[in-house]
From TrEMBL:
InterPro entries: Acyl_CoA_acyltransferase, GNAT_dom. Residues 5-170 form the N-acetyltransferase domain. This is GNAT family N-acetyltransferase. It comes from Chryseobacterium candidae. It comes from the Bacteria. It holds the Pfam family Acetyltransf_1.
Amino acid sequence: MNPEIKLRQAEIEDRNIIWEIIQQSIERRRQDGSTQWQNGYPDLGTVESDIAKGFGHVLTVDGEIAVYAALILNDEPAYSTIEGAWLSDGEFVVVHRVAVNEKFAGQGMVKKLFDQIEEFTKSHGIQSVKVDTNHDNMAMLKILEGKGYSYCGEVLLKDGLRKAFEKIII
């Protein structure tokens, strides 16, 4: 039987499991030799803020949280200046802070997350999805390439330069 996979808004009751998942991801990145998320960001306050602003989302498998991500509509100040060029200048969904529950690691859950994000984007008449990642986050770079995201250049976030990608949805 196929598991039920859903994308839903995170609730404050989810914060402890989300924080645990982010801590697992921080450790996985450290073990992979990545510098991303190794400076105290994101922290529990980031998760609480995401949830309070309605940005926090979880991908659930049969009701259990498998992946966390912040989805932000049309608002990433760092994206206004890019060394390169975005594919579009219409409405967009920004994907930040993707973290996978260890229990679901290696099961293609981030690809399923992006499928759901793209479906949400299309159903709301939003033009594209924009995302950035660290130059040494090989897992995410591979996923973005496989999902058809175009490399657009580099953006400067508070903790350094990031590779920026966009996919036109409609």
